[in-house]
Amino acid sequence: MVARVDDSALAPGRYEFRAVVRDVAGNQAVVGRRSDGSPMELGLPVREGTRLELGPGGKPKACTKAGRRRATTKRGKAKSKGRSACRRAKQGAGGSALEPAPGKRVKLAGRLVRGGNVPVAGVDVTVEGQMRSGGPFARIGSVRADGSGRLSFVLPPGPSRTVRFRYDGSDTLRPSSGQVLTRVRAAVRLKVSRRRLLNGQSVQFTGRLPGKPIPAGGKLVALQARVGRQWRTFATPRAKANGVFKHRYRFTATTGLRRYAFRALVTREAAYPYETGTSRKVHVVVRGR
């Protein structure tokens, strides 16, 4: 008699095994010894354990300083332009996290090893993702470990999520998994219908949330104006399922010539799988009457 036992489903320890055998005539026998007469006992786990370690993958395109360059101001002082497309966030309760820029890919790398840090080569590892807003893990793709047990995977653009690498094990190796968090800022675009107007006239704000999915009931967006050193919210339109939002505002208290700065703020929400993000500033010049 030959049977298989899943040693990952039982706690480590020493176990006794027996087989209960029945035939179609109703005869039954209980066997608890090996063919040589010794007790059928096993120490579990039988298979050797494995370990999957994950992290950012070296210097992929999406994780380098995207567009960063040195420039010179009119006064001759150096300044930098561009932002990092991917950076490591602070260590949190759920482990380390990466912060890819919205709409950018990020390369993840890892290594699969067994006891004594020996590489596990030539095996397939499944890559799965779970959105921050919840739901089951869904398959994203797979990757094969090379001769050194190393593996890398380019994660396509998407929302904040938990990315899990899962090795299912073999007849001699136990399964293992590793995961990393990605936190993606909400992307939001904002434009105005006109940039110069008179007091008493109105301007149309139009924007869009390119990131998907958007909750069925839409997503609130805060329109803010710069007042001194602070941003103050003056309207909260709701983006529709297609991500578009609109709001019309009429200027009534402007005197002289004023240049206003506006932006759109998208805050974190349980049903919206992105982190807090803001749009670029747009400016409107208003002349008082």
Name its key features:
single chain, 289 residues, mainly beta, Immunoglobulin-like, 3 domains, six-stranded mixed β-sheet, 27 strands, elongated
Fold topology:
Elements: E1 13-16, E2 19-22, E3 28-31, E4 41-44, E5 50-56, E6 69-72, E7 78-81, E8 86-88, E9 97-100, E10 106-114, E11 118-119, E12 124-131, E13 138-144, E14 150-155, E15 161-167, E16 176-182, E17 189-192, E18 196-198, E19 202-208, E20 219-220, E21 222-227, E22 230-235, E23 238-239, E24 244-250, E25 257-266, E26 277-278, E27 282-287
Parallel strand pairs: 9-16, 18-27
Antiparallel strand pairs: 1-4, 2-3, 5-10, 6-7, 8-9, 10-11, 10-14, 12-13, 12-15, 15-16, 17-19, 19-24, 20-23, 21-22, 21-25, 25-26, 25-27
What does this structure look like?
The strands form 8 sheets. A 6-stranded mixed sheet has the order 8-9-16-15-12-13, with no helix packed on it. Strands 18, 21, 22, 25, 26 and 27 form a 6-stranded mixed sheet that branches. Strands 5, 10, 11 and 14 form a 4-stranded antiparallel sheet that branches. Mean pLDDT is 87; it is low at 58-73, 78-85 and 89-95. The protein is elongated and about 105 Å long. The protein has strands at 13-16, 19-22, 28-31, 41-44, 50-56, 69-72, 78-81, 86-88, 97-100, 106-114, 118-119, 124-131, 138-144, 150-155, 161-167, 176-182, 189-192, 196-198, 202-208, 219-220, 222-227, 230-235, 238-239, 244-250, 257-266, 277-278, 282-287. The chain folds into 3 domains: 14-44, no CATH class; 50-65 and 84-182, Immunoglobulin-like; 189-287, Immunoglobulin-like. With 289 residues, the protein is an all-beta fold. It is built from no helices and 27 strands.
